[in-house]
Amino acid sequence: MSLALASGGAADSILELPESDPLPPRVRRILALAREHLGMDVATITGHRGEREVCRWVEGAGSSFGLRPGVPVPEGWTRPSGAGERTSRVCVPIKHADGRALGRLCCATRSSGVSVTGRDLRLLEGLADLAALELDQRSRPPIALQSRARRIREVIEDGLIEVLFQPILRLESMELAGYEALARIDARPLRGPAWWFAEAGRVGLRTQLELAAARAALASLSELPTEGYLSINLSPLTVMSHGFAAELPRFPEERVAFELTEHVEVEQYGVLAATLMPFRARGVRLAIDDVGAGYSSFRHILQLIPDIIKLDISLTRRIDEDPARRALAAALVSFARGVGTDLVAEGISNASELRAARELGIPYGQGYFLAQPTRLDSLRPSGAAGQAG
Fold this sequence. Notes:
- The protein is of the alpha/beta class.
- It has two domains: 4-138, GAF domain (Beta-Lactamase); 143-387, TIM Barrel (Alpha-Beta Barrel).
- Helices cover 36% and strands 23% of the residues.
- The strands form four sheets. Strands 9-10-11-12-13-14-15-16 form an eight-stranded mixed barrel, surrounded by four helices. A four-stranded antiparallel β-sheet has the order 4-3-7-6.
- The protein is elongated and about 75 Å long.
- It starts with a strand and ends with a helix.
């Protein structure tokens, strides 16, 4: 998750910190000292992502308060504290030397509360100043990181994202059901899309790159066959990012599916579902990708009740000869029928896997054996797809 911390006065001077932001040892000591001095159970430093205040670092029993790195803090949780009051939460601001707000240092307890003195607040303010020094140092990226971020911005701003379209077929008839939009980056170094999106994540620009790829895919929608829907890949963090809806152009919602990616746990399913609700109400379908490959995909299904479930390639491969894969796929076929969800087998690579998918009752599939990803100007049935029946 990316946290935006101001490092200058202009809008373009805001630094998007890396998605992976481990707790530094010095900050851990600051938080531990604050927590232990007040006799609290948890201490946290917050930051900002758009208009939301989120936890950045947590020390102590954070999970019992719903405090986890990258998760928005409850509204009102970080209200300023005053001396002489008995409270279960204490917060002081963390400010840059020029007065800009960087976040807050907060402590909390599960007990009935503690009495906060002026001396306590002065100590916390001193610790907040030490935290500000750490934040200021971390907001000045090394030249190498700046160069890598500039490379990602050039990809976005110069339109170096090419979109390929892989057909999704009805397995019984081999008729077109839809397309998955797949981003390719036409820039150096010559690397695959997974590398580029991971690199964007390392410099805090993954959301921006995902949105740019989504816009490029949606721009092609009017030129695709009208009988098929278009599935675009988005991470939950991008969907929950500030201004997500405003970043997308207008598009015919009934022809689009948002395909949620990532093998990571989503902490704020309520926020995710609420963000998706207006899109789904207007006809956008929700697909869960990589089902069966990670611990989070089944939680996505149960919490979000998607319209489309996509079996991960690790389940589809060798489904014709592996009883365990067949059993799990059969269970998902039954589940999908029970909740009225479409099921797509990804990565079908040969006739035996196609035959097994049909025998199991999997209604839809995609993969290089059926049809390869292709450019918009050369969409035509794959030779393999024509022979697969």
